[in-house]
């Protein structure tokens, strides 16, 4: 079954139901985490300034993001004395992100910015006073691709423990959805004949202690996913550049640097790898033929771990029985993509 992560709905502040904060896979913890970082930064800045007996005014926080209502949400949560300055980027495409003179004049004074990574990659060169940029998502690849030397500002991203827990919940949610066939239940409920089906996994499913999950990567996110599943009895295999001894496995049952050690027996294959020259294209239809149990592929890492044409081929030849995709080789996923019309 092919999933794209649905949008979630959150109220900005209890009691305010007129405006809703719509954002992919985010949560209120993101805002709290963001302002914890902001508070620490401002305290350090103020301490430095007070030590030199100068009068200090908190710099405004520029919000440069395509996330709807993010600036408003930050204003509602802001510490006293912190000014939130939204920058309108609705007229800027992610592909070109060209700036006009008006936008340049707005952002050139920014010391603190909350930015989408793709926008920061095009904006930072026009922000000579930038001291701290916080990326709204975990990935900073757009900036890495264009920056040629170490930046003069501090760069942080949304990739703390709260984020890892959110992603672990996402992975577990879709494993349970696949095992319990909730999509089939929904289809039956909404069919013209109102089918009461007793077929397949609806009445005969596996529990989490009966499956094996292989995870590409053993970093913070992968370890959190492994921990979530291991306490429920799941067998967990990990893939890393270097194997681990038995005393360093954590929640993993095995960690190997060979794909042929972790692919044949997995019921679910979960990618958490970042985008690097070593990970790009690490999976393809030929490699996935090592999977003997036709696993479901869950990608919460980066889309270029497998080319779309290879993914489609693996679904068609039966190497994979389904996919759950949070990321894609090309984003946003083009309307012409074959994935839209595939039932898996």
From TrEMBL:
GO terms for molecular function: NAD binding; oxidoreductase activity. The keyword Repressor does not apply. It comes from the Eukaryota. Keywords: NAD, Oxidoreductase. Residues 174-343 form the D-isomer specific 2-hydroxyacid dehydrogenase NAD-binding domain. The keyword Membrane does not apply. InterPro entries: D-isomer_DH_NAD-bd, NAD(P)-bd_dom_sf. Transmembrane segments: none annotated. SUPFAM superfamilies: NAD(P)-binding Rossmann-fold domains. PANTHER family: 2-HACID_DH_C DOMAIN-CONTAINING PROTEIN (PTHR43333), D-ISOMER SPECIFIC 2-HYDROXYACID DEHYDROGENASE NAD-BINDING DOMAIN-CONTAINING PROTEIN (PTHR43333:SF1). This is D-isomer specific 2-hydroxyacid dehydrogenase NAD-binding domain-containing protein. It comes from Caerostris extrusa.
């Amino acid at each position: 079954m092919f999933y794209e992560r649905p949008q979630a709905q959150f109220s900005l502040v209890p009691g305010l139901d007129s405006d809703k904060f719509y954002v992919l896979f985010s949560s209120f913890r993101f805002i709290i985490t963001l302002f914890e970082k902001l508070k620490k930064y401002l305290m350090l800045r103020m301490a430095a300034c007070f030590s030199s007996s100068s009068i200090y005014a908190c710099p405004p926080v520029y919000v440069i993001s395509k996330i709807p209502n993010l600036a408003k949400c930050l204003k509602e949560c802001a510490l006293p004395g912190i000014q939130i300055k939204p920058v309108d980027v609705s007229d800027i495409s992610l592909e070109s992100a060209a700036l006009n003179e008006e936008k340049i004049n707005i952002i050139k004074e920014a010391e603190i910015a909350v930015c989408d990574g793709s926008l920061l990659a095009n904006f930072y060169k026009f922000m000579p006073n930038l001291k701290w940029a916080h990326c709204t998502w975990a990935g900073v690849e757009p900036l890495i691709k264009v920056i040629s030397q170490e930046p003069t500002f501090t760069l942080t991203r949304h990739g703390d423990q709260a984020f890892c827990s959110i992603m672990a919940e996402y992975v577990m949610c879709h494993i349970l959805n696949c095992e319990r066939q909730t999509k089939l239940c929904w289809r039956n409920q909404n069919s013209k004949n109102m089918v009461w089906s007793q077929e397949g996994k609806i009445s005969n499913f596996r529990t989490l202690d009966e499956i094996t999950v292989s995870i590409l990567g053993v970093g913070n996110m992968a370890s959190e996913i492994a921990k979530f599943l291991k306490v429920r009895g799941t067998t967990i295999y990990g893939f890393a550049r270097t194997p681990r001894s038995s005393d360093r496995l954590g929640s993993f049952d095995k960690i190997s640097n060979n794909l042929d050690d972790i692919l044949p027996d997995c019921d679910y294959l979960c990618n958490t790898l970042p985008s690097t020259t070593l990970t790009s294209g690490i999976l393809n239809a030929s490699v996935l033929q090592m999977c003997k149990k036709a696993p479901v592929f869950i990608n919460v890492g980066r889309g270029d771990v497998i080319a779309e044409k290879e993914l489609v081929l693996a679904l068609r030849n039966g190497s994979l029985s389904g996919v759950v995709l949070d990321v894609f080789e090309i984003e946003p996923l083009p309307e012409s993509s074959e994935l839209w019309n595939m039932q898996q």
